[in-house]
Amino acid sequence: MSGLSALSLVYIALCYGAAAVFITGLVVKFYGYAATPAPLKIPTTPAPTTVPGVIARLAGEALFFTSLFKGNKWTWAGGYLFHATLALALLRHLRYFLVPVPDIVAMAGPPGVWAGALMTLAVVYLYMRRMTVDRTRSISLFADYFALALIGLIGLTGLIMKFAIRTDVTAVKGFIMGIVTFHPVNIPPDILFLVHLPWRWF
């Protein structure tokens, strides 16, 4: 790592640290779920009674939020818009981590930009909903507001870099690929990128 600036070393260490915390947290959660005994089968009515039925129901919940749709259409609309646009924006960002860039990631480029804008609007809607709906406000914790604020700031700074203050995309990809391949290079001296990247560590 000779030749790296002090600022680059800090950012590189934080990137690896955030990745380690994320992976460790996932492993611990999965292990906790797998190791927790469930001696009682508690049926949820109406519940599927076959394996294909269970798979179909889980897929519906994971991909379309069917229970939320039945419960509150407006909450479902805001939540689904947020998650769908977040997924598309993340798919677009894979171009910084992959060489060569797969066709599906390249195709996600233009729509991914507008997905970032819609995601930011969805975050504002969900934030306002938490503040204005009495029942939701009463069960919301600081962590709920904090997570929404962080994602909103990521989206906002990303949009500024795209439409207002352009950043050197080639230098950004070189920095990210250096981290991914464990051959780190100096971070681009771009103020907005230096602000945009740290929010992801939380």
Return the CATH architecture. Answer: Up-down Bundle
Strand content: under 5%
* Name of the top-level CATH class: Mainly Alpha
Radius of gyration: 20 Å
Secondary structure category: mainly alpha
The level of helicity is over 70%
The helix tally amounts to 10
CATH overall fold name: Fumarate Reductase Cytochrome B subunit
Number of strand elements: 0
Mean pLDDT: 88
pLDDT below 50 for ≥5 consecutive residues: which ranges? none
Largest sheet: none
CATH superfamily: Transmembrane di-heme cytochromes, Chain C
Q: What is the rounded distance between the termini?
A: 25 Å
Element order: H for helix, E for strand:
HHHHHHHHHH
Shape: globular
Overall structural domain count = 1
Care to describe what's here?
The protein is mostly helical and 202 residues long. The protein has one domain (6-201): Fumarate Reductase Cytochrome B subunit. It has 10 helices and no strands. The radius of gyration is 20 Å and the shape is globular. The protein starts with 5 loop residues before the first helix and ends in a 6-residue tail after the last helix.
